[in-house]
Design a protein that fits this description.
The complex is a heterodimer of chains A (about 100) and B (about 450). The model of chain A has no long low-confidence stretch (mean pLDDT about 95). The termini of chain A are far apart. In chain A, the strands form two sheets. A five-stranded mixed sheet of chain A has the order 3-2-8-6-7, covered by helices on one side. A two-stranded antiparallel sheet of chain A has the order 4-5. Chain A is built from one helix and eight strands, in the order βββαβββββ. Chain A has about 100 residues and is mostly beta strands. In chain B, the strands form six sheets. In chain B, strands 1, 2, 3, 4, 5, 6 and 20 form a seven-stranded mixed sheet that branches. In chain B, strands 8-16-10-11-12 form a five-stranded parallel sheet. In chain B, a hairpin with a 4-residue loop joins strand 21 and strand 22. Chain B starts with a strand and ends with a helix. The chains are: A mainly beta (about 100), B alpha/beta (about 450). Chains A and B meet through strand 1, helix 1 and strand 5 of A and helix 2, strand 8, helix 5 and strand 9 of B. Chain A: InterPro entries: 2Fe-2S-bd_N (IPR042204), 2Fe-2S_ferredoxin-like_sf (IPR036010). Chain A: This is (2Fe-2S)-binding protein.
Chain lengths: ~100, ~450
């Protein structure tokens, strides 16, 4: 489906990063969660409790609903900037220990 | 180890104004902020928003740029991208930046942590596509991204501002679903005489409403029985008004019913907090300079009680004056003289607040959610579970936390704490103050074991 968000000025240099193994071009230095929304990525993850889908909620680092995994560490996407080569995995529910 | 006379947590209106004022008295200031660039949420990315976004967001936003400019001072060291995870009232602050844990030591600490959106637990509020109205505004400010096919739900002036900004961006919201009633506005009217001193805010609000009317944005007021529908993501908002049940299909739902002080850091130091009935939230106890019960710790801006960005620049400066005096950089008489105009402006800035608090009360349905509604987003605990724990004898939030994990997830109770306090308070008929709040402990933000280990070695 069509992304739920519109980019008012989709210009500027883009860099390539990977999300779940797919290459994506995003604006260099932009807010990662915002770029993912503009790219139509939704949900961002499934919860470890019930597997329910989630996406960004507060965009200010407080809710922890935009968690993604970057090179093995769980990070808040809304506090990250897009940089070339980021390798992002979207969390898929309960991690098997 | 960083050292500074004053360490400020938060580079929003209060933190930036305090930094500039304190540096003006010759103090060395370390300004720590989680965001890469200064501005806080209200002036987020104001330094690089550009003229297009500036026009959409209006002057109250672009005005923030001059506060950012004032940080360019040899006495101020601003560290962006710094997540503070421990604050010691004796003056030690631990934070992580660029993947490295670091410690800073200061003689005074100013908490300028600002506000959080008041939690708004409604059926379906955890679905992807449901965000806070503040989040939509941050997307617009920081990234120039606007939600299409959005419905704003709740109460308060921010809803009008966000809606108007969306109209200016050429993407009006589909509707405003407001929970306040005509009765709320009438009851608030007795605060109007005092609010007239803060006329600017009231006129701005009326101007926004005119803008929305001209754009043809649908407004529903007195909405009850609100729910967000969707399979896997938000697809519609349903609610009831005087005209019966309504349903609006949409892609994004933006919630807002006021903001509340972000008390994570002040709670982590076990500072005394008091329940503010007019704002339905806790706030730390501070004196007229923002000094807390810990003499070296000050709190300014919305984190000490919601009063808005302009008031925050004033309370931030008041704290800076008291700190400069504490540290011998400003005689008492000069401190008091400099405080006088700040206090006069503060009285004007806060004049409209009692009217606004009552005209746009928190959404009743979200203060007392139905049993099946999730109230702890992280651990997916429902209101019914909290009520069940209350029936079993839990009196306070720390007990329910132990029994059902509400407040134990990664957000550490930021988005369920007030709800749990309100639920337990209602179940037992005890005041919110007596019911209490979550005990907050460091780390306030996630820190990896590797980061901690490196800190010990350095």
């Amino acid at each position: 489906m069509k992304p739920a968000f519109r980019d008012l000025a989709p210009d500027g240099p883009r860099v390539i990063l990977r999300i779940d193994g797919h290459d994506m071009a995003m604006r260099d230095g932009a807010n990662l969660a915002a770029e993912m929304l503009a790219a139509g990525i939704m949900p961002f993850r499934q919860t470890p409790v019930s597997g329910a889908p989630r996406g960004p909620f507060c965009m200010m680092g407080a809710c922890f609903d935009c968690l993604v995994e970057i090179e093995g560490t769980t990070r808040q996407a809304c506090l990250m900037e897009v940089t070339a080569g980021l390798d992002i995995t979207l969390p898929k529910g309960r991690r098997d220990a | 180890m960083h050292e500074a006379e004053l360490i400020i947590l938060g580079a929003g209106p209060a933190g930036m104004a305090a930094a500039a004022r304190a540096a003006g008295f010759g103090l060395s200031v370390l300004l720590l902020d989680e965001q890469p660039r200064p501005g806080g949420q209200i002036w987020r990315e104001v330094g690089r928003a550009g003229p297009l976004r500036g026009d959409l967001l209006g002057r109250d936003y672009t005005d923030g740029a001059r506060h950012v400019d004032r940080l360019d001072h040899p006495g101020i060291s601003h560290l962006g991208g710094a997540s503070v995870w421990q604050v010691d009232p004796a003056g030690e602050v631990a934070f992580t930046r660029n993947g490295a844990a670091q410690v800073a030591r200061g003689r005074r600490i100013l908490l300028a942590n600002g506000a959080l959106e008041r939690p708004m637990p409604l059926p379906g509020w955890t679905l992807p596509g449901v965000m806070t109205a503040g989040a939509a505004q941050i997307l617009l400010k920081a990234s120039g991204i606007v939600a299409e096919r959005a419905v704003l739900v709740g109460a308060g002036p921010l809803i009008y501002l966000v809606a108007a900004q969306m109209v200016r961006a050429g993407t009006p919201p589909l509707a405003l679903v407001e929970t306040q009633t005509l009765g709320d506005v009438l009851r608030a009217a007795r605060h109007l005489p005092r609010a007239l001193a803060g006329m600017g805010y009231l006129l701005k609000g009326l101007g926004l409403l005119r803008e929305l009317r001209r754009a043809g944005v649908a407004r529903f007021t007195g909405a009850t029985s609100i729910a967000i529908e969707g399979t896997g993501r938000a697809e519609a908002v349903t609610f009831t008004t005087g005209n019966g049940p309504q349903r609006i299909a949409c892609d994004t739902v933006l919630l807002h019913h006021g903001v509340v002080p972000n008390t994570q850091a002040s709670r982590s130091m076990d500072l005394p907090h008091e329940w503010d009935d007019a704002q339905r939230s806790f706030r730390p106890v501070v004196d007229a300079w923002g000094r807390s019960a810990e003499p070296c710790v000050f709190i300014a801006g919305d984190g000490a009680g919601i009063a808005g960005a302009k008031a925050a620049t004033l309370t931030g400066q008041l704290s800076a004056l008291a700190i400069a005096h504490d540290l011998g950089a400003l005689p008492e008489a000069d401190r008091d003289l400099a405080a006088r105009p700040l206090r006069a402006k503060l009285a004007l800035e806060t004049a409209a607040r009692p009217f606004l608090d009552r005209a746009y009360p928190p959404c009743a349905q979200a203060l007392a959610p139905a049993d099946e509604t999730i109230i702890c987003r992280c651990e997916e605990v429902t209101a019914g579970t909290i009520r069940h724990q209350a029936a079993l004898g839990c009196l306070g939030p720390n007990q329910t936390k132990s029994f059902c994990r509400a407040g134990m997830g990664p957000c550490q109770g930021r988005y369920c704490g007030l709800t749990v306090t309100e639920l337990l308070s209602a179940c037992h008929g005890r005041p919110q103050q007596a019911t209490g709040a979550y005990r907050i402990r460091a780390p306030l933000k996630p820190v990896t074991l590797g980061e901690l280990a490196n800190l010990a070695e350095s």
